[in-house]
Amino acid sequence: MKFFIATKNAHKMQEFSRILEKSNIELICEKDLSEPIEDVEENGTTFEQNALIKAKSGLAATGLPSIADDSGLCVDYLGGEPGIYSARYAGEHGDDDANNEKLLKKLSGVPREKRTARFVCAIACVFPDGREFTVNGACEGYIAEKLSGNGGFGYDPLFVTEKGCFGEISADQKNAISHRGQAIKKFEQELKKYI
Fold first, then answer.
1. How far is 67 from 72, CA to CA, in rounded Å?
2. What angle separates helix 10-20 from helix 179-191, to the nearest 10 degrees?
3. In this predicted model, what pLDDT tens digit does every residue of 54-69 receive, in sequence order?
4. Greatest alpha-carbon span in the chain
5. In whole angstroms, what is the distance from residue 186 CA to residue 195 CA?
6. Domains of the chain with CATH codes
7. Active-site amino acid positions
8. CB of 20 within 8 A of CB of 27?
9. 124/143 Cα distance (integer angstroms)
10. Shortest CA distance to 55 belongs to which of 64, 46, 170?
11. What is the reported pLDDT for 9?
């Protein structure tokens, strides 16, 4: 069965493909289409709402069952910031360096025990017949005082789990414990009820 992944983020597409490679799902994304999809305003107030907005946009553009995720970093000391604004925390969407710099400034002087955080991921799936579902995943950790490693993307060089910093561990190690990895496993199980 063919599904459209409603993301412009190549890193997310790679993670979805890697984790779902053993399933019987054929994934296509925007680069497989003849023309780009119009950007959609992520104006939901939760990760689930934003994931559904993106998935429905993908369905409208392609007519295919569509999958989208919305994910972000929630820091306890900051009352859950950056949360749904993770990708645009410093203003410009997707400026990882600026986002990380802003986060480090906001946590300057905050001791390790108060730097607890979690990555959260909501995945939405919508079908042409109107059926839809969402699943969630989370990964607990804390925010380091400086960037580490060259791996991953976004806040990965600052996020540390019991298995290590996301910026330093391998993609397979990350996928085994990450918020998106957890959500995709739940997605695979839930999808069996629909196809």
1. 17
2. 50
3. 999 999 999 999 999 9
4. 52
5. 15
6. 2-191 (3.90.950.10)
7. 70
8. yes
9. 27
10. 64
11. 78
